[in-house]
From TrEMBL:
Residue ranges occupied by any Protein kinase domain in the UniProt entry: 94-408
Name under which the protein is recorded: dual-specificity kinase
Record GO cellular component, one term: nucleus
Entry GO MF terms: ATP binding; protein serine/threonine kinase activity; protein serine/threonine/tyrosine kinase activity
Superkingdom field: Eukaryota
Family: Belongs to the protein kinase superfamily. CMGC Ser/Thr protein kinase family. Lammer subfamily.
CDD domains documented for this protein: PKc_CLK
Pfam families: Pkinase (PF00069)
Catalyzed reactions per annotation: L-threonyl-[protein] + ATP = O-phospho-L-threonyl-[protein] + ADP + H(+); L-seryl-[protein] + ATP = O-phospho-L-seryl-[protein] + ADP + H(+); L-tyrosyl-[protein] + ATP = O-phospho-L-tyrosyl-[protein] + ADP + H(+)
Keywords: ATP-binding, Kinase, Nucleotide-binding, Serine/threonine-protein kinase, Transferase
Enzyme Commission code(s) on record: 2.7.12.1
Length: 500
């Protein structure tokens, strides 16, 4: 009986008892059973369709987690963001290299895939139900049957996803900066009209594809459009030549590649879903959304129009946070709203401040705004924007219709940009042999493009040599650094800089 009592006595109490002899076997409490270790998501287990940790790893999770597998447990911050440290692992497969950005949804981290040794971007969603649900919508869209078609267009490719410590993590290909970040770091200097044309075409291609799938993005904005490459070149900004060049203000950055991809499909919805709630970021919100009239595919095209103006001017067109002021700005730029839309609207009346009146009064008419920033093609661009920014959504241009607009289909531009897309400059840069093998083809393509440019301006091949050289330099600027290097022409050539 005494032995049984000693075995059942709490171990902590035995440590405090004065002992007169060494502890015998019957004094030891029975060993505790090993804890039952579930497969928790916070232990580094990537769940669902991604990399899955072998069962051999699970004993480590309760007997001392190795540092190279997963970081120690930390609570999220007050907003539900994942707390991390640079250099630690995000699951055994990914190592955190840097923080790329942060938004309402969560954070984007640059990580190293320890299996492929490639850098990826991982979107870590806040551990809040509504953001988790939005992330699952985005994942579902990427897992549709036409996912592989998405990769062929200007939509960011989803590589993998997993649930980690109550955070949905989506793995994407690593891309360059957003158009907004590029503008911001470039002191909000506008893009050249030819670059705006190419960016607009790619954006409308993506929107048209989504609309064909009966999907509405609902959150198109420069922050959600990423350049594929981070490379850029510095060229003179002739609008700032009157300023001192000591601080570099007379130069601006130009992307080395115009390729873009669309991201952030967490707000995407299907055509048949309820469309009575407020969507889109304020600056890019369509009038039917503000007026509470319901919305559909045309709300994306309004956002595209606002984006094109921002790329041309360097600034968002409607910088406001209040509905009445927003509508007043629209009327200032585009003219009066249709009476039938106002009659159907549910809009509370509020007093208008002097600051609001001044902000509205500063805005120019659409035609004047474009003429301030665009030297050529202004007429085509104004006509396109009037179609995209039509108040009545039933009369607004559709994505496919916008792609057929003369702003995109002029023979001169089509010749030039088809010439650009003939060559994969990234491949040629990564494989020097490609440059050597395709040299004759590059020269032949340049000859054809040169003839097309000269014909488009009413000239034949029997023109002064200087005009032929100008046509060649136009092609050089468009083809990219790899082809320019192949043919021995640098972008710092004075004539080339004048044409950028």
């Amino acid at each position: 009986m005494e032995t049984q009592w000693a075995a059942e006595f709490p171990h902590a109490a035995l440590e405090k008892r004065p002992r007169k002899r060494p502890r015998m076997t019957w004094d030891m409490p029975p060993p505790l059973p090993p804890p039952k270790v579930p497969r928790p998501l916070y232990c580094g287990h990537e769940y669902v369709n991604g990399y899955c940790i072998s069962d051999a790893f699970f004993p480590y999770y309760h007997s001392g987690l190795p540092r190279h597998l997963s970081p120690p447990w930390r609570p999220d911050d007050k907003d539900g963001h994942y707390v991390f440290a640079i250099g630690e692992n995000l699951t055994p497969k990914y190592r955190i290299l840097s923080k790329m950005g942060e938004g309402t949804f969560g954070q984007v981290l640059e990580c190293l895939d320890l299996e492929t040794r490639e850098s990826v971007a991982i979107k870590i969603v806040r551990s809040i139900l509504k953001y988790r649900e939005a992330a699952m919508i985005e994942i579902d869209l990427f897992q549709m049957d036409l996912h592989f078609s998405v990769c062929m267009l200007q939509l960011c490719a989803n590589l993998n996803w997993f649930d980690y410590r109550n955070h949905i993590c989506i793995v994407f290909e690593k891309l360059g900066p957003s158009l907004y970040d590029f503008l911001r770091k470039n002191s909000y200097r506008s893009f050249h009209i030819d670059l705006v044309r190419d960016l607009g075409r790619q954006l409308l291609d993506s929107v048209a594809f989504m609309h064909d799938m009966r999907l509405i993005h609902t959150d198109l904005k420069p922050e959600n459009i990423l350049l594929v490459s981070s490379d850029y070149v510095r060229v003179p900004d002739y609008k700032a030549l009157s300023l001192s060049s000591k601080d570099g203000t007379s130069f601006k950055n130009v992307p080395n590649s115009s390729a873009i991809k669309l991201i952030d499909f967490g707000s995407t919805t299907f055509e048949h879903h309820d469309h009575n709630y407020v969507v889109s970021t304020r600056h890019y919100r369509a009038p039917e959304v503000i007026l509470g009239l319901g919305w559909n595919f045309p709300c994306d095209l309004w956002s595209v129009g606002c984006i094109l103006i921002e790329l041309c001017s360097g600034e968002a067109l409607f910088q406001t946070h209040e509905n009445l002021e927003h509508l007043a700005m629209m009327e200032r730029v585009l003219g009066p709203l249709p009476s039938h839309m106002i009659r159907s609207a549910e809009l509370a009346t509020r007093a208008t401040s002097r600051e609001s009146m001044r902000a509205v009064g500063k805005l120019p008419r659409l035609q004047n705004l474009i003429m301030q920033h665009v030297d050529h093609s202004a007429g085509d661009l104004i006509d396109l924007l009037q179609g995209l920014l039509c108040y009545d959504p039933s009369k607004r241009l559709k994505a496919r219709e916008a792609l057929c607009h003369p702003f995109f289909t002029r023979d001169f531009r089509r010749c030039k940009f088809n010439c650009c897309k003939t060559w994969n400059t990234d491949l040629m840069l990564s494989d020097p042999s490609m440059v050597h093998l395709n040299g004759e083809q590059v020269a032949e393509s340049m000859g054809n493009a040169e003839k097309g440019i000269l014909q488009s301006i009413g000239l034949n091949s029997e023109v002064p040599k200087v005009l032929q050289e100008i046509a060649q330099l136009v092609i050089m600027v468009c083809l990219g650094s790899a082809v320019r290097a192949t043919l021995g022409i640098a972008l710092d050539d004075p004539m080339a800089l004048m044409l950028v």
